[in-house]
Design brief:
Blueprint: E1 2-4, E2 10-12, E3 27-28, E4 41-42, E5 48-52, E6 58-63, E7 66-71, E8 77-81, E9 89-99, E10 102-112, E11 122-123, E12 136-137, E13 143-147, E14 153-158, E15 161-166, E16 172-176, E17 184-193, E18 203-209
Parallel strand pairs: 4-10, 12-18
Antiparallel strand pairs: 1-2, 3-5, 5-8, 6-7, 6-9, 9-10, 11-13, 13-16, 14-15, 14-17, 17-18
Length: 246
């Protein structure tokens, strides 16, 4: 090692030094990591953390102000299960491994998510003909849309056919019906599975396809229908009134 002062004088020191540390890793245990096993999101209120260090090292885990301790086994493996329930939130944790005068740290975040939002479904703009929001359309293959949790799996069933959909990063989703709807009521069931593995309650309803225009008819009022009543042909009135115009 060489040291120098402001005047440019240099001094070289020869010798050895030891980095007094040990390796340590920490993560949400795979058996507690529900949903995606690598996203550190879980629906476990008492999750387990695990990792690896040197054999017999002392381990301390601090999370949400609570401290938990254990000792690594002969292979350096360790695990700790929390004893205090964590409410839904994001938590930072720190793990310290100590063996004699050697020490090292690992840190991370975990998200506790124990409930799933109830999903929504609507006919998208361009598919919601007639009265907006009445779930009636004249489009046989309409686009459906809704909002749920980010990246959730949307499980949509229409007339007994399941259509799995993945929501965007902001929770929005859309889907254009593949099998044309039948005239009249078409049943649907909607639920989601979020990133933590929670399944929402199911939402059920109907989408009505109506492609048949109503029939139109007209008749003369009896007071204006001269000749044979009901033949709607002959009238002595210059401007006869039809019933729906009276």
């Amino acid at each position: 090692m060489t040291a120098s002062d402001l005047a440019g004088n240099k001094t070289t020191i020869n010798g050895n030094f030891i980095i007094n540390t040990i390796d340590v890793s920490a993560e949400l245990d795979i058996n507690s990591n529900s949903g995606d096993p690598h996203d550190n999101i879980t629906n476990a209120k008492l999750p387990t953390f695990s990792g690896k260090t040197v054999a017999n090292a002392e381990i301390s885990l601090v999370i949400n102000g609570e401290k938990y301790t254990t000792t690594a086994d002969s292979n350096g493996k360790w695990s700790l299960t929390l004893a205090t329930v964590l409410p839904d939130n994001t938590y930072h944790y720190t793990v310290t491994a100590t063996l004699g005068d050697k020490v090292n740290y690992a840190a991370g975040e975990v998200v506790i998510d124990t409930s799933a939002l109830t999903p929504t479904l609507n006919l998208a703009d361009g598919s919601d003909s007639g009265v907006i929001g009445d779930y009636t359309t004249n489009v046989a293959t309409p686009m459906l849309a809704g909002v749920t949790e980010p990246n959730a799996k949307v499980m949509l069933t229409i007339n007994g056919v399941l259509y799995p959909i993945t929501a965007d990063g902001d929770g929005s989703w859309s889907f254009t019906v593949i099998n044309p709807l039948v005239e009249g009521d078409n049943s649907y069931t909607l639920s989601i599975i979020d990133s933590a593995g929670n399944t929402s309650s199911s939402v059920m309803g109907y989408i009505t396809l109506d492609t048949i225009a109503p029939s139109a008819s007209a008749m003369l009022l009896p007071s204006d229908d001269s000749g044979n009543i009901g033949d709607d042909i002959i009238s002595e009135t210059i401007l006869p009134l039809l019933p729906h115009l009276r």
